[in-house]
TrEMBL record:
The protein's name in its UniProt record: tRNA-specific 2-thiouridylase MnmA
Superkingdom classification of source: Bacteria
Native organism taxonomy: Bacteria, Bacillati, Bacillota, Clostridia, Eubacteriales
Gene: mnmA
Binding site for ATP: G18, L19, S20, G21, G22, V23, D24, S25, F44, G125
Domain tRNA-specific 2-thiouridylase MnmA-like central: 221-274
Length: 365
């Protein structure tokens, strides 16, 4: 009841936008201003020392004549995102830090600033939309208009508190060229800036993720490459250096192409096999989150429902599948066609039409 009272006092003309300094969030700000919103920028300093990033955001905010808040979120980010990233790799999994950061840091902080600034809405420059079901009143992440740029996969863990207040101005953008053109037309200095790097907290020009992990005490010892029967094939350099589906950079020659098919943390082994060994019709996921329940409990209507699709990585296309639940709360996704290299630690995301209905973290076979 208290929350409802607070919400009704917030201004629906104000909106807090995550302003990274990139062209996407810049164009989102321009579009929101054109729509008549009073835009307030918010820059997250995830490492606590990004002077260049802060300066770029400040220059853009000044040019667009919008106020900007800068927040050092490095302590929370380190505990919630970086530690998870390092520990997952050290366990032979392949994490996606954005999936963790979005609910735990980025959108959580956007709501905090919005409440503080008396703003009802929040926004980001993601290429994705939000839709409300007229019957249930539930809000869903909706695929963006551009299949190539769609970022719905990254946002599947957002709950109703976020989705009900979220506006995504780039939902209808067909491509990045259109976004850059709008930025150029408004004389934005970052119109042609390069896209942000894949892992925002690692300077890829100075170090890779392995050295980043090792500097934080997450080194992995050498072990053995083995085949499916456990026969030793050679020595690996630490399980954190490999991912399921990998072929290049293994450092072993066996006279034919081989791929990482499994990583066994307990035995400190990397299993190698043929490409065919990577294809499976069943994928198990844990720590699931479903939009309709706001937790890991799968809605009954989705169980064994026809028309559901799922994707096992960001760049994959959603494929027809049927969802089942296990007695321990995990979800077993059965695909019509075998999927290649479902990678532990990555997310599997579920769609009902163009709506995201949930997802979870892929478990080892």
């Amino acid at each position: 009841m208290q929350m409802r009272t607070i919400m009704t006092t917030l201004s629906k003309n104000k909106i807090v936008l995550g302003l990274s300094g990139g062209v996407d969030s810049t164009t989102a700000a321009l579009l929101l201003k054109d729509q008549g919103f009073e835009v307030i920028g918010f820059y997250f300093d995830v490492m606590g020392d990004n002077a260049d990033g802060k300066r770029a955001a400040e220059e853009l905010a000044e040019k667009m004549e919008i106020p900007l808040h800068i927040m050092d979120v490095s302590e929370e980010f380190s505990k919630s995102v970086i530690d998870n990233f390092c520990s997952q790799y050290a366990c032979g999994r392949t994490p996606n830090p954005c999936v963790v950061c979005n609910p735990a840091i980025k959108f959580k902080k956007l709501l905090e600033i919005a409440d503080r600034e008396n703003a009802y809405y929040i926004a980001t420059g993601h290429y994705v939309g939000v839709t409300k079901d007229d019957t249930s009143g539930i809000y869903y992440i909706q695929k963006g208009s551009s299949e190539k740029k769609d970022q719905s996969y990254m946002l599947y863990r957002l709950g109703q508190q976020v989705l009900s207040r979220l506006i995504l101005p780039l939902a209808d953008m067909k491509d990045k060229d259109t976004v850059r053109r709008l930025a150029r037309e408004n004389d934005m200095p970052n119109a042609q800036a390069a896209d942000s790097q894949e892992i925002c907290f690692i300077d890829e020009e100075k170090e890779d993720y392995v050295s980043f992990m090792e500097a934080r005490g997450f080194a992995c010892s050498k072990g053995h490459f083995v085949d499916a029967e456990g026969k030793i094939l050679g020595e690996h350099q630490g399980i954190n250096r490999y991912t399921v589906g990998q072929r290049k950079g293994l450092g072993i020659a066996l006279g034919k192409p081989v791929f990482v098919t499994k990583i066994d943390k307990e035995k400190n082994q990397v299993v190698l096999g043929d490409n065919a060994d990577l294809f499976h019709t069943e994928v198990v996921s844990a720590e699931n989150f479903f939009t309709e329940t706001g937790c890991g409990e799968i809605p009954e209507r989705l169980l064994e429902k026809q028309g559901i699709t799922a994707k096992i990585r960001y760049a994959a296309k959603p494929a027809p599948a049927v969802l089942h639940k296990t007695c321990d709360g995990r979800v077993v996704t059965v695909f019509e066609q075998p999927q290649r290299a479902a990678t532990p630690g990555q997310s599997i995301v579920f769609y009902d039409g163009d709506r995201v209905v949930g997802g979870g973290f892929i478990e080892p076979y």
